[in-house]
Design goal:
alpha+beta, D-amino Acid Aminotransferase, Chain A, domain 1, D-amino Acid Aminotransferase, Chain A, domain 2, 2 domains, 6 helices, globular, binds pyridoxal-5'-phosphate, EC 2.6.1.42, branched-chain-amino-acid transaminase, pyridoxal phosphate, B_amino_transII, aminotransferase
Length: 340
């Protein structure tokens, strides 16, 4: 029985569900892992995660397709990305099969929380790993916990898609040879002040430039950029300090193989941005959010698609990828895993 939840009015907030997955790492190996109803974590006041932020995470979605299957989208890529995040933080790598098994178990156990097809709502899945034992001298923990919980979230765009306004940030998100390419909690901790400041000044997001030269576009705090040139080429910034978005990689594939568009992954200079026809932000939560305006210290770049609607190319990409996800357009081999 699907839960009594008002799917159309759900926001993006935490809702406690019935089960979560927990596995512990101790004495050099991961235990088998299990589902639990206990949503609380008890640990040392000196846990490495609390003192030195030794933690990384993933985010993906489960949803109901047109034919009633419950599916997840490309979880193998999340498994691989979590492995590189773990490696970057000296966290023991979570084996890929273990990650996938955990995702399947948690979604299956909470299947009554998976929103029905057509509501636009989804079940957001949050895998994460953290250093758990007491560490006061600076070094990695010896004991870790890998957990996966799920929470139903509402449609990202309620009452229609609205282009957003972003500002060029004065502070940096990631160092040139730092941790920008791994999904670490610490990258978000340092973005909190800047996003609150942006919101206070009337902007929806921050555009981060490359910290070394401050001439090239990187990403926002939690989404990659996609631009469309006036002749219809899809362009996305390339940099070692960008988090490799699975949505962005999927959209580039869709642009090329489903929409017949030219795609370029290359350095994008901020000076070029004013010449693009469309701009969007890609991530699991929204798939693509259209950007209507970018403000650089009072100088405004208003994209031709404007502040009322999504541009035609970004709109087509979004429709195609969501169609693939929802099962109304045939997916490339291996993109969709059915939860059985
Ligand atoms: C998670 C994340 C994204 C989006 O990645 P998806 O796999 O598409 O959800 C983009 N940028 C940052 C910094 C992120 O942490």
């Amino acid at each position: 029985m699907t839960k009594e939840i008002d799917w159309n009015n759900l926001g993006f907030g935490y809702v406690k569900t019935d089960y979560r997955y927990v596995s512990n790492y101790k004495d050099g190996s991961w235990d088998e892992g299990t589902l639990t109803t206990d949503d609380q974590i008890t640990m040392s006041e000196c846990a490495c995660v609390l003192q030195y932020a030794q933690t990384c995470f993933e985010g993906l979605k489960a949803y109901t397709t047109a034919n009633g299957d419950i599916v997840v989208f490309r979880p193998d890529l999340n498994a691989e990305r979590l492995q590189s995040s773990c490696a970057g933080l000296e966290i023991p790598v979570v084996p890929k099969e273990k990650f996938l098994d955990a995702i399947h178990q948690v979604v299956k156990a909470n299947k009554d929380f998976v929103p029905p097809y057509g509501t636009g709502a989804t079940l957001y899945i949050r895998p994460y790993v953290f250093g758990k034992n007491a560490v006061i001298g600076v070094k990695p923990a010896d004991e870790y916990e890998f957990r996966v919980f799920v929470t139903p979230v509402g449609p990202y765009f309620k009452g229609g898609v609205k282009p957003i306004t972003i500002r060029v940030s004065d502070v940096d998100r990631a160092a040139p040879r730092g941790t920008g390419n791994i999904k670490a909690g610490l990258n978000y901790a340092m973005s909190l002040h800047n996003i609150v400041d942006a919101h206070n000044k009337g902007f929806d997001e921050n555009m981060y430039l490359d910290p070394q030269t401050r001439t090239k576009v990187e990403e926002t705090g939690g989404a990659n950029f996609l631009f469309v040139t006036k002749d219809g080429t899809v362009v996305t910034p390339k940099s070692n300090s960008i988090l490799p978005s699975i949505t962005r990689r999927s959209l580039l594939y869709v642009a090329q193989h489903y929409c017949g568009l030219k795609v370029e992954e290359r350095e994008v200079y901020f000076d070029e941005v004013k010449d693009f026809a469309e701009c969007g932000l890609c991530g699991t939560a929204a798939v693509i959010s259209p950007v209507g305006k970018i403000v650089d210290h009072g100088k405004e770049i208003l994209f031709p698609s404007g502040m009322e609607e999504m541009g035609p190319v970004i709109s087509k990409l979004r429709e195609t990828l969501t169609g693939i996800q929802m099962g109304t357009i045939e997916a490339p081999e291996g993109w969709i895993q059915v939860i059985k």
